[in-house]
Amino acid sequence: MNVLWDNGEMSMRDLLDKMPEPQPNFNTLTTFVRRLEMNGMIKHRELGTRFFLYEAAMGRDKYVEAMNKESVARFFNGSYKDFISCLVQQQEVSIDDLKDLIRMAENAK
Question: What is the pTM of this model?
Fold first, then answer.
């Protein structure tokens, strides 16, 4: 997704060329792009027989929001509290981070 956001519309070959090392196999990338397209994250337009240009169907913020919602739903039964609790237990979020989050939530009201 970052490659598409950073470069705009591009062919599968161009997309592969812009991928960071180690680059995936062409067929692997094609499968991944198709899955992202089926989930509405990438779209394409056909320029000719079997020649397509791909682009992100949503911006970074919308993508991150969708991924967060999907992850919380899948792994934490929709509970953001359980998600944050997991991050605290794994020491990914500090007490100071939590205090900042509480202040942000209070100010958002």
Answer: 0.68
List of residues 6+ apart from 100 with CB closer than 8 A: none
> Strands 51-56, 42-48: parallel, antiparallel or unpaired by DSSP?
antiparallel
Domains in the chain with CATH codes: 2-56 (1.10.10.10), 79-109 (no CATH)
Q: Is 51 helix (H, G, I), strand (E, B) or coil?
A: strand
The crossing angle, in degrees rounded to 10, of helices 60-76 and 80-89 is 90
Nearest-angstrom CA–CA distance, 8 and 85:
37
Residue 83, both tokens: 């998600």
The 10s digit of each residue's pLDDT in 60-103 is 999 899 889 999 999 999 999 999 999 999 988 888 999 999 99
CA 76, distance to chain mean position in Å, is 18
